[in-house]
Design a protein that fits this description.
This protein is of the alpha/beta class. Helix content is about 40%, strand content about 15%.
Length: about 130
């Protein structure tokens, strides 16, 4: 019985010492319905878990930029475009900081379904998003 208690204590110590793995944009990379993404964004907001935008992140995936706990990998590529419905475009635009919103508006990037790509490096240096450490 003593050995079993010691093993349980050791496993607890190991699991609490292990660093938390941050969620990533990978499962969301190709975008989708903004109403569903809004629910996932809220889930990560409540969790406080770091959310890393990595690799390719298009369309509704960019809604994760709304998270206070978001960071962007410099090598990421974010693709912006108008949603299928005006409400979808508005949901995406509401997810961005004012600097990015102004840029996308000036470029007309959210007026058409054509993708407008911004690198992770530019998201960090030009629009003030946090770089993943």
């Amino acid at each position: 019985m003593r050995a079993l208690a010691w093993i349980a204590l050791a496993l607890t110590a190991i699991s609490s010492a292990a660093p938390a793995v941050a969620a990533t944009s990978t499962p969301y990379a190709k975008g989708g319905r903004t109403v569903e993404f809004a629910q996932d964004v809220e889930k990560y907001r409540r969790s406080g878990e770091q959310f890393r935008i990595v690799g390719h992140c298009q369309s509704a995936c960019t809604m994760f930029l709304a998270l206070p706990n978001v960071c962007i990998e410099p090598g990421a590529r974010l693709l912006f475009h108008a949603g299928a419905q005006p409400i979808a475009t508005q949901r995406m635009m509401n997810s961005y900081n004012s600097k990015l919103r102004a840029y996308l508006t000036a470029k007309g990037a959210m007026d058409t379904p054509a993708f407008h790509t911004i690198s992770g490096r530019d998201m960090i240096s030009k629009f003030g998003y946090r770089r993943c450490g």
